[in-house]
Amino acid sequence: MAEDKLKDILRKYQRKYISEIGKGIKKYDIAGTGALLTSFKVGQPRVQMFGGTYVMKIEALEYWEYINYGRRPSKKGSKPGKLKPKIEEWLRLPNIQQKLTSGGRGKYEGGSDDEWDKEKIESVAQLITSKIHARGYEARPFVSEARKTLDDIMFKDVADAALEQASIKLDEIITFINSN
Fold it and tell me: Tens digit of pLDDT for each residue in 35-59?
C-alpha cells in the first residue's frame, strides 16, 4: 500500500540523516564524550491519509544547536546563564578530564594529570565560559550539512510516494462511485 511505502521512505531517510549527522560529528571532531552522537534518536514516522501530516522527527541533546549554528559573544551586562554550570557538568566527565590533560589527544595535550577537584573544575569552567562569552562559538554545521545533502532528494521521494498514495485513493473513490 502507498501509505506503507511512504512510511518506508521516511524510515529510510531517518537512517540516512542519522548517518550523515554522525559523519559530520566525526568531520568536525565534536565527539567529546560521545553523548551527542548517541543522543540522536529517530521517532516513528506518522502518516495519515488525505489532509494528514507526514512527520519525521529527529531528537538530540539540546546543545546540538549551539554547536551546529554557533553562538554570538554575550552582550555586556548579560545575566549569568546556564553555560557555566553545563561546562562544569561536562568537565566532571573522566574522559573529558583526560582529553584536557596529558592523557588527552592532539590540541589538548600538555595539561596535568592532577586530581580534578571542585575548585579546578570551577576554574577551568570559568575560563572556558569567559572565552565563549567574549568571542562566541564558531559554528560547526554538522546537522545543516546533513540537511543540505539529503533534504532535496528526500522531499522528492516523499512527494512521489504521497502522489502515488493520492492516486491510489482517487482510484478507490472512482471505483466506489462506478460500482454504486
Answer: 888 888 877 666 554 566 666 778 8
In this structure, is the dihedral angle defined by the CA atoms of residues 149, 59, 65 and 54, taken in order, positive or negative? positive
Alpha carbons 17 and 63: distance in angstroms, whole number: 18
Max CA pair span of the chain: 84
CA distance 62 to 47: 26
All three cell numbers of 9, joined, read 521512505
Which three-class secondary structure state does DSSP give residue 136? coil
Using CA atoms, how far residue 20 sits from 141, 149, 151, in Å, is 12, 8, 12
Using one digit for the tens of pLDDT, what is the confidence trace for 127-143?
Answer: 999 999 999 999 999 99
